[in-house]
Amino acid sequence: MKKVLIITYYWPPAGGPGVQRWLKFVKYLPDFGVHPVVYVPKNPTYPLQDSNLISDIDSNRITVLKQKIFEPYAMASFFSKKETKKISSGIIAPERKQTFAQKALLWIRGNFFIPDARVFWVKPSVAYLSNYIKEQQIETVITTGPPHSLHLIGLQLKKQMPAIKWIADFRDPWTTIGYYKDLKLSASSHQKHKKLEQQVLNKADQIVVTSAVTKAEFAVLTPKPIAVITNGYDTEPIPPQELDIKFSLAHIGSFLSKRNPRIFWKAITEILKEDATFKEHFELKLIGAVSQEIIDTIDEFKLTKFTRNLGYISHQDAVVEQRKSQVLLLIEIDSDETKCIIPGKLFEYMVSYRPILAIGPEDTDVEQIIKETNTGVYTTYDEKHRIKETIKSYYALFLANKLHVYPEGLARYSRKNLTKKLTELL
């Protein structure tokens, strides 16, 4: 059986979206004649944890290697544990609302740790893995980021052993990722990021990305082959769920400050004023980490009494909640940088067989996927009337007990089919 070395930072008990992609690839690779050797940190700092995901790891079918990592987040937490955890999980407040601690930590993070705070793992990992690759006669190495420091491990291994095949997987882009501009980079730090990005893109044998928009972006920077393998959904051992009695609109996942959809809050507020029965049935359900600005805005629009905030729960419990919800909300930041982002939860939303209401920028891959699969409605930030009418339409169907969706062509996004696509690159 062919062995493939996979270098990833996120691995159970890590929670959140970062762990799902390669946990599921690894789960199905043995079905296609590939034995995954997964290299992960022994003592990582995970802002979110979900021990239930460990059940997806079959130790008889994979090999897991662990080596210690030094992370500055551990020291920074003495300075401000709360702010450090927020930043490491991607929750960054708007600059006008940032505390001194937040500003200081962002500046240090952006200018002292390039490309990210896991950069100290590169050198010891290269020393350990170079010997392991020779001993085990491994021919293919895969790195996945963010954190993009892991691509630097691949870069150094490729320099030492040009014969290995190196695949660089980008779950998110590098210098155009949404939070990049928030890192308070100096001109020289920005140039260092760009240089490292260029080196990785041009030294890897194969680039893998999660969206067509990212492929087009990277194609300008490198002549190397670029494959699009999206995230997807897996079969979940969860029985059918009774739908919420309330007309629940559920947002699942991190609800970041920049995703604050004031146009949505306005639409909901207007419907509440116009329809007395809507007040009796409406519920906003929040599942996952929610920024304080979102909570404050909900209060500003007097929607707090309609809101049920469950906080961060296990992945399995989140799937249960989304399958119980009447409508699923997908909110993306309104910017050009986020057009390439296809949230992993989109695919789980689609297989939940509940209608999706998505709000984001124009001309995105998300919009195309929702249309192709007939799983909901995609709107932009300047379409308040359409958002309002979509909610009213869904509500009318809810009252008539006819709120259903009829998806098409979901099989192409199953984790097993996506893994088969990956093996074609190996």
Report on this model:
It is an enzyme of class 2 (transferase). The chain is α/β, with parallel strands linked by helices and 426 residues long. Helix content is 40%, strand content 16%. The chain folds into two domains: 2-70 and 116-229, Rossmann fold (3-Layer(aba) Sandwich), CATH 3.40.50.2000; 247-410, Glycogen Phosphorylase B (Rossmann fold, 3-Layer(aba) Sandwich), CATH 3.40.50.2000. Helix 5 (149-160) crosses helix 6. The longest helix is centred in the N-terminal third of the chain and has 17 residues, at 72-88. The two termini are 13 Å apart. Mean pLDDT is 91; it is low at 76-81 and 83-93.
List the helices and strands and how they pair.
Blueprint: E1 2-7, H1 20-28, E2 34-41, E3 63-67, H2 72-88, H3 100-112, H4 122-136, E4 140-145, H5 149-160, E5 165-170, H6 187-203, E6 206-209, H7 212-219, E7 226-228, E8 247-252, H8 262-274, H9 276-281, E9 282-287, H10 292-300, E10 307-311, H11 315-324, E11 327-331, H12 345-351, E12 356-359, H13 365-373, E13 376-379, H14 384-399, H15 415-423
Helix pairs in contact: 1-15, 2-3, 4-5, 5-6, 8-14
